[in-house]
Amino acid sequence: MTEEIIIAGFGGQGVLSMGKILAYSGIMQDKEVSWMPSYGPEMRGGTANVTVIISDERISSPILEVFDTAIILNQQSMDKFEKTVKPGGVLLYDPNGISRHPERKDINIYKIEGAKLAAEMGNLKIFNMVVLGAFLAIKPIVNLENVMKGLKKSLPERYHKLLPLNEDAIRLGMKNVITVQEV
Amino acid sequence: MGELRLMKGNEALAEAAIRAGVDGYFGYPITPQSEVIEYLTAEKPYERTGMVVLQAESEVASINMLYGAGATGKKVMTSSSSPGISLMQEGISYIAGAEIPVVLVNVVRGGPGLGDIQPSQSDYFQTTKGGGHGDYRLIALAPSSVQEMSDFVPLAFELAFKYRNPAIIISDGAIGQMMEKVELFEQMPRLTDEEIREKYRWATNGKLKDGTRRVITSLDLDPHKLEEHNLKLQAKYREIEEKEVRYEMLQCEDAEYIIVAYGLSARISQKAIQLLREKGHKVGLLRPITIWPFPKKQIDELVKKGVKGFLSVEMSAGQMVEDVKLAVNGRVKVEHFGRLGGVIHSPEEVVAAMENKIIGG
User: Fold this and answer.
1) In chain B, which end has fewer C-beta atoms inside a 10 angstrom radius, N or C?
2) Containing H/E element for B54?
3) How far, in Å, CA of A169 to CA of B201, rounded?
4) Helix (H), strand (E) at residue B278
């Protein structure tokens, strides 16, 4: 199993930390992982994206042009990354702030109302965990127990009291993913 | 099994420095390697092992701190990125001339000049062919994963002390910034002053009991003596070339074509090879782990085995390709492919270069 994922959105949406938690979860499940952020001037006030690879084998290139899954959280990222999903791959997006919905016919498309659900939970910061939950419902490449272990490893101890809230957010995302199109 | 962590390459290197029993780190921040000194400062290694971490006032100061501290037989290192390493070249030449075992780290970014902060491999010439003045060599290790960013720190020190020669870890912005799983090695002890005096008879850390003086210098105004010193250095370099070449070969057994690539380019090329093999092309990877000493013999053997062409893939305008050409010596085709200025080539671009320049070319 090798899963090549791009997560893309605005800086501040928790894109990089979602990727980090996913990568840590992979380690907890005995997988090889890589986390490669876009860094440099393009991050300032603009888009942020990270390539996460989780695999049973040694990972070759941490930098990719096409992906098994794209998790897309804003319009710029939709414009940039919809075309990079491999045929038969997965595109997961949050429709909040999206003006042009995905148009490809050869990929599986799912929606998660991440921003809305997080707002309903009363904490916008856990938006990224709702989205992560949705991804794990579509592609259960790591189990929830290992995600929680990964989360614990990647959060500083002073935030450990927030672990149950994060778990609730992940579960909420798992339950609320909407299938738009399956091929 | 050691402790497993998800770490950035720069952080793994910094943690490895503490665990390798390093006595002193002297550095000056520069993107994309500032996490090294940030991590070292936050970890308070002085409390963990007694290791000194000092932010110098400039790169010129750091390298001269290394020169002085290294001469006492202590394990010392610095890290920087391309423009900072350029500033250090005078000191590096002095250190090589005076045969002081220090470890340098270059997390390479796009150049020339201030360039940018994106990953690059355009410091190959500087690393392997001099940089500073005079006939000297650096033992140059090129990690291609976060794990190797950790593992190569104790290895670089081992080689530096074995040959009394500066060693350099040459990485790039991507390997420095990306996170991967790392298995950390156990804490190694720092040597006491007494142990250093016993182990390194050259170290200038006090007069010996028999009154013998130990002198470290790179200056000798008598040309005959300086020639003798140079011949001694050259003999050492030949020994290193003989014994310390490190490389990795992947899928070379049946390969008709070879990609030669180090560091990040080797990782990208591995993916390219997978794609090329899916298309029916028998391509293998030769990854120099030491870019000096360079795996010349291995290339020679591949040519003798019937390899029809080599593609050197590096994020530069074509630097390592010169060493590949020297090893191939005109017998088969050698071409270069690489993006410049901090742009990273994709596996698909490497596939196209192999098809157009070597297989179909």
Assistant:
1) N
2) strand B52-55
3) 63
4) helix B263-278
- Chosen from A7, A33, A39, A53 to mutate, greatest number of chain B CBs within 10 A: A39
What residue ranges do the domains of chain B occupy? 3-184, 248-359
Query: Do residues A68 and A90 make contact, with C-beta atoms less than 8 angstroms apart?
Result: yes
Peptide bond into B293 cis (omega under 30): yes
How far out from the chain centre does Cα B343 lie? Answer: 21
CATH code (residue A170):
3.40.920.10
| Strand residue runs (E) in chain A | 2-10, 32-37, 47-55, 67-72, 85-93, 108-111, 178-181
Task: Express each pLDDT in B24-65 by its tens digit.
Answer: 999 999 999 999 999 999 999 999 999 999 999 999 999 999
Q: What is the mean pLDDT of chain A?
A: 94
**What fold does the segment set B248-359 form as a domain?**
Rossmann fold (3.40.50)
| Whole-number Å distance between alpha carbons of B253 and A132 | 42
Which are the contacts of B293, defined by CB distance < 8 A and separation ≥ 6? Answer: B139, B240, B241, B244, B245
The tens digit of pLDDT for each residue in B181-197 reads 999 999 999 999 999 98
* Contact at CB, A40 and B117, closer than 8 angstroms: yes
Select the residue from A54, A61, A147 to test the B interface by mutation, using most B Cβ atoms within 10 A: A61
H helices, E strands: number in chain A: 6, 7
